[in-house]
Amino acid sequence: MRVLATVTFNPNQLRAHLLPILAIPEVDEVVLVADEAPPELPKLRVAVPSPRARRALGRAGSKTALCVRLARRLRPDWILSWNIMPHGVNGFLAGRASGARSMYHCIGGPREWEGGGWSSDNAILGRLPRPVPPVERALLGVARGSTLVGTMGTSGRDRLISAGLDGARVVVTPPSIDTERYAPAPPEAERPYAVVTVAQLIERKRLTDLLAAVARLRQRRPEARAAIVGDGPLGPELRRQAMRLGVGDAVDFLGRRADVEEIYRSSRVFVLTSRSEGLSVATSEAMACGLPAVVTDVGDMADLVREGRNGHLVGVGDVGGLAERIGGLLDDPDRYAASSAAAREDAVALAAVDRLRDLYRGLLVDGARGVGES
After folding, report:
1. Is the distance from CB of 279 to CB of 304 less than 8 angstroms?
2. What is the pTM of this model?
3. Residue 47 contacts residue 66 (beta carbons within 8 Å)
């Protein structure tokens, strides 16, 4: 089986979404259309648009043209894409041009398509000042025209079905975890950070809420420190905000890290403050490392974080609730230990690579229950 894939991911996201597919025995090769070559993975070959094509067609247009050309030449069995704009559109067009089956993964949740993507992170659609129903209908047409649609969790699946998609063609395909890489620290390990988050430094992540929660937490635990892993345009403003809140010396902005698993193992509680998500890769990885999670109740996060068992769900912007839940975990060693063990158990059960390999094998190779038949 040959697969053509199109997406722009950082190396961590790429492994989370592609490792289960690369692990399928019947998959001989995955050809990835991307802006630049990622770190090497077994059976993965990368195709990057030429500088000439990029000058002529732009970044998005050159990838569209390359997807269509490769689909016609390689005649893949499947074309896989992540994010509807532009990659889902590219996969749809390449599938139509070559006759291949296509699978679009809606990893950003309904905001990718609702209102035409006006609240999404997409550089074009995200600039729309208000919902645009005709654009939404066009995006749903791309999803409807794909052989399969994958969602990060049950909430995203339900929203697509309510929008008119055939439930037999919409399947839950969460990101995977390398459970050997993301594993708990030994009991004697030092954990200098009470709180850690891994996120782009963008408005949607609402990291000002995290800083405000750290300031409240420091009132009861003056020694508490936080780590923020990631980069983005709001970095300077967030550092200034930390200083204004009096926690500038208690929050370490660590930038992008290739060893993020070591930061998890140096921390006690994972926090996510986003106003919207699909199902956070970083939350899955942190929980696999044994960190209870305190996250906003958005998107598909409730599929992973189970209130009171492996962490807590809070409302968007509920800084007081965020600080209270974090403090409650840190103040009760027995409760923390139980939540830590449950976090590891639940993350592995949902997203271990071998489980998702078998899921994808059923979809792409066996056509389980007829799903994926044209």
Report:
1. yes
2. 0.92
3. yes
Do 171 and 83 belong together in one domain? yes
Bigger pLDDT: 82 or 368?
82
- Contacts of residue 347, defined as CB under 8 A and 6 or more positions apart, other chains included, come to 177, 284, 285, 287, 288, 304, 310
Letter string b/e over residues 260-289, b meaning 16 or more CB atoms within 10 A of that residue's CB? bbebbbbbbbbbbbbbbbbbbbbbbbbbbb
In one letter, which amino acid is 233? P
What pLDDT digit, counting tens, does each position of 330-356 carry? 999 999 999 999 999 999 999 999 999
Whether residues 60 and 170 fall in one domain: yes
The pLDDT of residue 366: 86
Nearest to 202 by CA among 130, 128, 120: 120
The domain tally of the chain equals 2
pLDDT at 213 over 50: yes
Contact (CB, 8 A) for 64 and 91: no
Q: Which domain holds residue 12?
A: 2-176+352-370
Chain position carrying tokens 């965020």: 322
Kindly give, in sequence order, each residue whose CB lies less than 8 Å from that of residue 333, ignoring residues fewer than 6 positions away.
none
Separation between Cα atoms, residue 367 and residue 353, nearest integer Å: 19
Side chain identity, residue 81: S
Count of other CB atoms within 10 angstroms of residue 3: 26
Regarding whether 203 and 145 lie in a shared domain, the answer is no
- 185: in domain: no
